[in-house]
Each structure stands twice: as C-alpha cells, then as structure tokens.
Design a protein that fits this description.
- The protein is built from 16 helices and no strands.
- Helix 2 packs parallel to helix 4, helix 10 packs antiparallel against helix 11 and helix 14 runs antiparallel to helix 15.
- The longest helix is centred in the N-terminal third of the chain and has 67 residues.
Length: 496
C-alpha cells in the first residue's frame, strides 16, 4: 500500500491536533464552570444539611457511583472506540445497546435495593438511595448518546450537558433550602439535574440523527458484552478505589463521619484540577516523543514530574496551614472535625500531582496493561488499609489509607518505569522542592507561635519558596518545555 504523501500527512496530523485542542478546550472550560457551580452547591448543601445530612447524601452518591459501572458495563467506552473506527456501525450499536443497558440498569437497581435494605441503614438513607438509583437509567442512556457523539468528535454536547446539570442542581438546592426541605428532597434535586442534562443530550441527538428501531440481536449482545467486560472490570476497580472508603465509613462509623470526611475529600480532590489540565497537553506530546525518541520521552516525563512537585509540595503545605480558616469560612464551624482530615488528605492530592503524570507516561509508552495491574494492586492495598484503620480511627484512618496508597502507587510506578528504561531521577529532581519546603516549614514554625498573621507568613513563605525554585530548579530548557506544553496550534486561513 503506498504511503501517504508527506504534505498530506502533515496537514492531516495538524488538523487532528487542532480538533483535539478544540475539543479539549470545550471540556476544560465546561469542567471549570462545572467545578465552580459544584463548589457553591456543596457549600450550600453542607451548611444547610450539616454533617449527618451531607453524609447521607454523599453515601448514596458513592454507592450509586460504584454500581453505575455494572449498569454501564464498559459499553460506552466500547461504542466510542468501535464507532470511531467505523461510523456506519453507530445505528447497530444504538439499536442494541439501549435495551441491553435498560436490562442492566434494572438488574443493578434490584441489586442495590436488596443490598441497602439488608445493611441496616435508616429509612431516610434508603429513600435517598432509591431516588439516586433511578438516575442510573437516565445516566446510562445519556452516556450512550454522548459516546456516539464522542466517536464523531462532537464534544460540545457533553460540555453543555455538564453545565446544564450543574446549573439545575444549584438552582434546585437553593429552592430546597428556601423550602426547608430534608435530605430526600436534595436526592430528588440531584435526579432532576441529571434528567435535565440527559434531556438536552437526547434532544440534540435526535435532532441531528434519527433514533433507530430497537433490536435484540442476541449474538451481537454476546459479542459486545464479551468485548466490553475488561473495560467494565477496570472501571469497577477504579470506582471502588475512589468510593469504597465512604461506604466503609458509613457502615462502621455512620453517616455523620461520612459528612465530615466528604468535605475534606471534596476540597482535596478539587486541588488536582491543575495536574488534570496539565496532562491534557502532555499526553499527545509524550505519545509523539515515545514513537520518535525514547530519550526525549524519558527526559520530558522527568521534567513534568519535577514541575508537578514544584507546585504540589507548597500547595499541600499552604492548605495544611490554612485548613481551619478554609473549612470554617466555607462550611462553618460545625465542620471543624473536617480540618484534620483535610490536613491529611491534601498530601495524597500532592502525591497525585506526580502519579497522574506517571499514569499518562504509562499510556504514552504503551504500558496500559501494567498500569491496570498497578491500579488493581493499589485497590487491594487501599481496601485493606481502610478495613484495618477505619474501625479504630474513623475517617482519619481513611485519610491515612488514601495517603499511604498513593505513596505506595508512586513508588511502585517509578520502579516499573525504571525497569523499562525510563528512570525519572526523582531522588535528584525532588531536592529543590524538598529543600524549599523544609525552609518554609521552618519559617512558619518560627513565626506562627509569635502571633504573626497567617497571611504575612504565607506571603513570606511563597516569596522564599519561589526564589529557591528559581535559583535551584529552573533552567532555560524548562522554560522552553513549559511554553511548548501550553501553546495551542494557531488556526490556518481556511479555519478562520
């Protein structure tokens, strides 16, 4: 087969990069807006419901999130992959996957009903779970239509759907607070918000594409489920890793402890937006480098890890320093028990600044299977530590378990990459930020007992840390790489 001419190949690659950049921009902007609306929603709901009510709501959300993977069963990921390869198969997949997912949702809801009634939860908690479980059907159908849109690289729908869902949830929460509603009503608000986002997706989809007649091609069902189950297993593992602590805390310590833990976890999770956005630019660069130069790939990974360390360590320290004012200002003094949990969990978020980069490196280096094995090992460690620590230390034990698991995953990930020839030299590259952290910790320890205002300490610490990193950790090559990661492709005349 003759090779594509170099000019055509270059133009095709450039167009692909522009398309990826444009889609990434849509999702990034919508994610930022959604995060902002979700933050306001969480603050309002937490202040109104208190720790116990927030714990009931978040337990229901965590439980449904775990079981939602069974309802989805990896089908949306499979559809995106297969329809992207062959657009003509979209109708066949839609016609068959809709009834498949409806049956999976009904079976999953039945399983949830049996489980939640057998574990001794309060009637109010059971009603919350019932309402949220109805959202499984809505989410499954919405995810199916979005998967097809993603295969056709139309991601604007998903962006607007996220924004609509967040807006409806926030408005519904304000109305529920005004009406002095209980936690069950907030679960209903969540269901309505999910339905609003799904209704938008459905309306846009049927306007652009005719909905096919539903089918029950059982041979196709068997082949599809056989192909999708590894993706489902991976997704279940990841969801268990991120949500099982909430379920265990609710079973052993009750929903009030879940409420205190959820506030701290939400804040620490929000801090990982920076590395998440960073790797959106990093992945295509690393993928290209791995194909052309293993040395450049390794060096860029090492530099990226260094950049994340430069940001992660002071971020975690300053959140630790400001934890009490942050919690009290946003959620009120009733959530002061969340302070210590936040001071622990934020260090897990700091480690994730690096592990997110490592995960991207695994994908770019075609080591996805190893990454999957590492994920399952981390799940086993996390579940074991949670079972061991939560009965004795409540949500503080869950916080320690999260930090320990992330640290273990970081160490193991570095070892695996090193064995494949990608030594990221973390011992050497971590010296400047660790030295800077040690200096600002010493400054804070010296000034804090002398009643120096926290803002003054923070400004001084930031200035000292910035000088240390600039002098010891940044070179000209770093500056060029940072600019290349942040630079978006310029449109051609035909695209303007």
């Amino acid at each position: 087969m003759p090779e594509q001419p170099q000019t055509e190949k270059h133009e095709s690659n450039t167009a692909s990069v522009r398309r990826v950049a444009r889609n990434t921009s849509f999702l990034t902007i919508s994610q930022i807006i959604s995060y902002g609306e979700s933050a306001v929603y969480t603050i309002l709901v937490a202040r109104y419901l208190g720790a116990e009510g927030l714990g009931v709501l978040n337990f229901g959300i965590a439980l449904i999130a775990i079981f939602s993977i069974l309802a989805n069963f990896g089908l949306t990921t499979l559809i995106t992959r297969e329809v992207a390869r062959d657009k003509s198969r979209a109708t066949k997949y839609i016609a068959n996957v809709i009834p498949m997912q409806l049956l999976l949702c009904l079976a999953t809801i039945g399983l949830i009903v049996v489980l939640v009634n057998s574990l001794g939860y309060s009637q109010q908690t059971i009603y919350v779970v019932y309402l949220l479980s109805v959202g499984l059907i809505v989410n499954a159908l919405s995810a199916l239509f979005l998967a097809v849109c993603q295969a056709f690289q139309r991601l604007g729908f998903q962006s607007l759907s996220l924004i609509i869902t967040s807006i409806v949830a926030l408005c519904g929460a304000v109305l529920a607070i005004h009406l002095h509603a209980n936690v069950v009503v907030f679960a209903f608000v969540s269901l309505v918000a999910t339905g609003a986002g799904a209704a938008y997706v459905y309306a846009v989809f049927v306007r652009r594409s005719a909905l096919p007649r539903l089918e029950a091609d059982f041979a196709f069902w068997r082949a599809t489920l056989k192909e999708a189950w590894p993706m489902a297993v991976m997704a279940i593992g990841i969801m268990i890793y991120f949500r099982i602590d909430v379920v265990i805390i609710s079973l052993i310590q009750g929903t009030t402890a879940v409420g205190f833990y959820s506030v701290a976890y939400t804040l620490s999770e929000a801090s990982t937006v920076v590395p998440s956005m960073f790797v959106l630019s990093l992945l295509p660069i690393l993928s290209h480098m791995h194909q052309n130069s293993k040395t450049s790939f390794r060096d860029t990974c090492a530099q990226s890890v260094r950049y994340m360390l430069y940001l992660a360590l002071p971020m975690a320290f300053f959140v630790t320093l400001w934890a009490k004012p942050i919690i009290s200002t946003l959620f009120g003094t009733a959530f002061d028990p969340s302070v210590a949990a936040l001071q622990i969990l934020i260090w897990a978020a700091a480690i994730m600044y690096v592990t997110i980069v490592l995960g991207t490196a695994f994908v770019a280096a075609n080591l996805q299977r190893l990454n999957m094995n590492l994920t399952f090992i981390m799940i086993a460690v996390n579940v074991g530590l949670n079972v061991l620590l939560i009965p004795r230390y409540s949500y503080f034990g869950a916080s320690f378990a999260t930090v320990a698991t992330e640290a273990f995953g970081l160490a193991l990930g570095l070892v695996i990459l090193g064995k494949y020839g990608y030594d990221l030299r973390l011992r050497r590259t971590s010296l400047p930020p660790l030295f800077g952290l040690s200096v600002i910790v010493a400054i804070s320890a010296l000034l804090f007992p002398r009643d120096v205002p926290l803002m003054v300490i923070t400004i001084l610490d930031l200035a000292v840390y910035a000088v240390i990193i600039y002098k010891l950790g940044i070179n000209e090559q770093d500056k060029r790489v940072i600019l290349s990661l942040l630079k978006l492709p310029q449109p051609t005349e035909s695209e303007r």
